[in-house]
User: Which sequence fits this backbone?
């Protein structure tokens, strides 16, 4: 058991913030435990994320290379990182919580008899790891009391990317053994959803609707409010799953990330999958019947009440204000 | 096609959850429970595959006696039979221990396809299905919206991030974790509810399955989240609160 291994993901220019946040979490853990920090990424030594200096302290970086890793597959990544972890014997493995890490890291952890503590939002002395429960209504503090490596994935936006520190990074190649028949899945090229035409990212005002709206017929209530405000209509995932609002208007981890001047959340409880898509908004207003709904934790203004009364009243008030 | 669907009973999303006296879990008395949403989509996918290609849908769930009601709901929607792994200590088990229970119950059945939701609404660990795949030695794919049967396996549509998708071909037997929204969920019919009463629910215990509860990671305590912002709550009647909000948006936020 030696150090802390942060596994980064090279996503292409400007899209590596999640990995930097995982590094930031790794650095906090290093401070608490006195352990050294190492990093690894799939790619050769020229992989951009290894060359970028943002927040990178002196450490060792492993460039994990193999022809079978050219395209992501769970089988390929499981084998590669199982072997790297056996070689380095880190006490902690830290990854960004992404669709990729949640796909392969639990399998790697199982091979070590371990469980991934997923989607952590905080690290406290002990160390204990904080993550959300019950769709953000509670926080849970987890501890890893046993022997063997502790696997952690880091929630997007939960850790501040810190500024660059001086020093150099030694890049070492790591070539895992991946037999030709080990990779069972045949992945195709990623493609975009065909109807992805609405760019909510540049909207100044957004009115977003969640489960509280109860049925498709009631969407018009919220649409009227949006129209009166000159706002785009958006929705949380369940509303789009039901087809009540088109999928391309979904805000959240599986939809768009937005940061308008005004984000008005109607009947949205505020599960973390939604919050990661909108908490960067300048002003957040929440209307919800449940005073304990997690959406109020990020709201600037809140109205606890029946949306079927509040929304029409608000539409009238906005119209009355001459907007 | 023999399809096994792992489902979880979770507190109903509208239920008021409160921390219990031990501060290690929530108060369970008087709590309403429901079928975990993405598991409902996994069940729907399984039922549709069976309707297209024939075969059998077997639901598997671990938990105390109360889980029986969620199992009956799945049978009423059309699952053929069920395995209930009866364990009262489900809350103390970590994801690996729960996955071991599920895998041990599934293995003797030799399923062609194992489906489950991508994550639970209570713990949200998002890994049980992937661990089951590892324990069963099967390939897997996660965040799946659509499943097509092929000659040698399945072709699946996986959701990536920011509106991107990917198609993956997998040989079977395989495990798929299902994302919500890929299908329209069915309701149980009256006939279905009636039939469910006569369908087989086999009960197994953790002892029979030889899976111990010793966790690798421990949930030490639960707490209420800290507020990230100071929220101005606007009270009064709907009209008063609405008028107050318009004033704030105009003169404090300058967005109107």
Assistant:
């Amino acid at each position: 058991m030696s150090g802390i291994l942060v596994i980064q993901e090279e996503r292409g220019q400007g899209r590596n913030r999640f990995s930097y946040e995982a590094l930031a979490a790794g650095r906090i853990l290093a401070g608490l435990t006195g352990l050294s920090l190492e990093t690894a990424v799939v790619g050769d030594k020229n992989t951009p994320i290894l060359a970028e200096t943002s927040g990178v302290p002196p450490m060792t970086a492993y460039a994990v290379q193999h022809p079978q890793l050219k395209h992501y597959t769970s089988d390929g990544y499981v084998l590669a990182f199982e072997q790297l972890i056996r070689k380095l014997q880190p006490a902690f493995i830290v990854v960004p919580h992404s669709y990729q890490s949640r796909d392969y890291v639990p399998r790697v952890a199982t091979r070590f008899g371990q469980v991934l503590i997923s989607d952590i939002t905080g690290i406290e002395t002990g160390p204990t790891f904080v993550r959300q429960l019950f769709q953000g209504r509670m926080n849970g503090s987890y501890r890893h009391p046993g022997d063997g490596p502790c696997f952690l994935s880091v929630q997007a936006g939960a850790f501040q990317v810190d500024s660059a520190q001086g020093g150099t990074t030694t890049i070492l190649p790591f070539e895992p053994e991946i037999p030709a028949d080990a990779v069972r899945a045949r992945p195709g090229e990623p493609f975009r959803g065909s109807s992805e035409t609405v760019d909510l990212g540049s909207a100044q005002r957004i009115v977003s609707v969640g489960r509280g709206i109860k049925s498709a017929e009631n969407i018009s209530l919220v649409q009227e409010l949006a129209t009166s405000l000159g706002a785009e209509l958006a929705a949380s995932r369940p509303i789009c799953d039901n087809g009540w609002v088109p999928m391309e208007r979904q805000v959240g981890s599986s939809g768009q990330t937005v940061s308008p001047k005004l984000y008005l959340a109607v009947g949205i409880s505020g599960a973390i999958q939604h919050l990661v898509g909108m908490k960067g908004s300048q002003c957040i207003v929440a209307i919800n019947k449940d005073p304990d709904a997690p959406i109020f934790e990020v709201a600037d203004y809140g109205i606890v009440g029946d949306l079927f009364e509040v929304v029409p009243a608000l539409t009238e008030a906005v119209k009355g204000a001459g907007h | 096609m023999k399809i096994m669907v792992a489902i979880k009973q979770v507190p109903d999303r509208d239920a008021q959850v409160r921390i219990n006296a031990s501060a290690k879990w929530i108060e369970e008395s008087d709590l309403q429970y429901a079928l975990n949403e993405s598991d409902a989509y996994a069940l729907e996918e399984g039922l549709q595959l069976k309707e297209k290609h024939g075969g059998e849908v077997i639901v598997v769930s671990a938990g105390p006696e109360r889980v029986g009601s969620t199992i009956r709901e799945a049978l009423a929607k059309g699952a053929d039979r069920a395995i209930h792994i009866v364990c009262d200590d489900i809350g103390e088990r970590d994801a690996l221990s729960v996955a071991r229970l599920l895998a041990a119950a599934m293995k003797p059945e030799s399923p062609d396809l194992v489906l489950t939701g991508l994550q639970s609404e209570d713990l949200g660990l998002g890994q049980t299905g992937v661990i089951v795949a590892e324990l069963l030695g099967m390939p897997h794919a996660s965040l799946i919206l659509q499943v097509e049967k092929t000659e040698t396996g399945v072709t699946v549509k996986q959701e990536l991030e920011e509106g991107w998708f990917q198609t993956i071909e997998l040989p079977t037997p395989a495990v798929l974790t299902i994302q919500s929204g890929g299908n329209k969920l069915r309701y149980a019919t009256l006939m279905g509810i009636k039939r469910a009463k006569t369908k087989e629910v086999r009960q197994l215990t953790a002892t029979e399955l030889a899976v111990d509860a010793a966790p690798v990671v421990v949930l030490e305590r639960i707490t209420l989240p800290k507020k990230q912002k100071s929220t101005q709550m606007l009270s009064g009647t709907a009209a008063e609160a609405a008028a107050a909000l318009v004033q704030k948006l105009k003169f404090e936020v300058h967005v109107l």
User: Anything to note?
Assistant: The longest strand of chain A covers residues 116-124. Residues 1 and 158 of chain A are 27 Å apart (CA to CA). The helical segments of chain A are 17-33, 48-51, 74-88, 101-111, 219-229, 237-241, 272-278, 307-320. The longest helix of chain A spans residues 17-33.
